[in-house]
Each structure stands twice: as structure tokens, then as C-alpha cells.
Design a protein that fits this description.
2 helices; single chain; 116 residues; alpha+beta; HIT family, subunit A; binds adenosine monophosphate; 5 strands; binds zinc ion
Length: 116
């Protein structure tokens, strides 16, 4: 599977190395790095290297990569030394999405409040 890239996408630039990031985990398909503006003591983003705009753009062809992300989250959490955490995906601008390259927030290191 070739990696799709979108011009002017910050996270594609992080994948290519054009924008630096503080990496936690990387393999040929995914990357996990610390959020630049953390809202919790641990705040990491997990992204597919291939450009998928948002959760609503996930197709059956993306099932493997999305499954791969979730199968690696336990390992990433272990690297971060968090046993319990929240996984967040903001899908669409009104839901709070600001970077239009699929990503899952891993938030931990403090007691989480209610969703809202
Ligand atoms: P969202 O609002 O769900 O689209 O999340 C986008 C996240 O990307 C925000 O939490 C930002 O702080 C984070 N972010 C934006 N640019 C960077 C960057 N260059 N490195 C790391 N995190 C970033
Ligand atoms: Zn992208």
C-alpha cells in the first residue's frame, strides 16, 4: 500500500519530516507523537502515515490501517507509562477537528472529566 500525501497538511509534513515532532512510536504505517499543545499530562496523537482526512472518510480499504492503529495503542500506552487513558477523535470542524488528517488523541495522566 502506498502512502498518500496531501500538500499543506501539517501531519503529512510531520510524516515526511518537513515539520519536526516529538515521536513516541513509529512503524511503516503509523506515527505517534506528543501534541504540541497538551491538554493533559500525557497527550499523544496517533496518525496513519497515509493521508485520510477524517473519521468520516474512512473506507473499507482503510480497515487494516485503522485496526493497526488500535492494535498498537496498548504498546504506545505502555511506552507512555499510562495504564488508563482516553482515546478521542474529533470528526469535523464543529466537533473540534482542526487538523484534517485522521488522528486519535491519547489523553492520560490525570482524572478525566465528563465528555461534552
Ligand atoms: P484536533 O483539534 O482534534 O484536530 O487536534 C489537532 C491537534 O493537533 C491539536 O491538539 C493540536 O495541538 C495538535 N497539533 C497541531 N499542530 C501540531 C504539531 N505541529 N505538532 C504536534 N501537534 C500539533
Ligand atoms: Zn495529511
Amino acid at each position: 500500500m502506498s502512502i498518500q500525501h496531501s500538500d499543506n497538511c501539517v501531519f503529512c509534513k510531520i510524516v515526511s519530516g518537513a515539520i519536526p515532532s516529538n515521536k513516541v512510536y513509529e512503524d511503516d504505517k503509523i506515527l505517534a507523537f506528543h501534541d504540541i499543545a497538551p491538554v493533559a499530562p500525557v497527550h499523544v496523537l496517533v496518525i496513519p502515515k497515509s493521508h485520510i482526512k477524517s473519521a468520516v472518510d474512512i473506507t473499507p480499504q482503510d480497515a487494516e490501517i485503522v485496526g493497526h492503529i488500535f492494535s498498537k495503542i496498548p504498546e504506545i500506552a505502555k511506552l507512555l507509562d499510562i495504564a488508563e487513558f482516553r482515546i478521542v477523535n474529533n470528526c469535523g470542524a464543529s466537533a473540534g477537528q482542526t487538523e484534517f488528517h485522521l488522528h486519535f488523541h491519547i489523553l492520560g495522566g490525570r482524572k478525566m472529566g465528563n465528555m461534552g
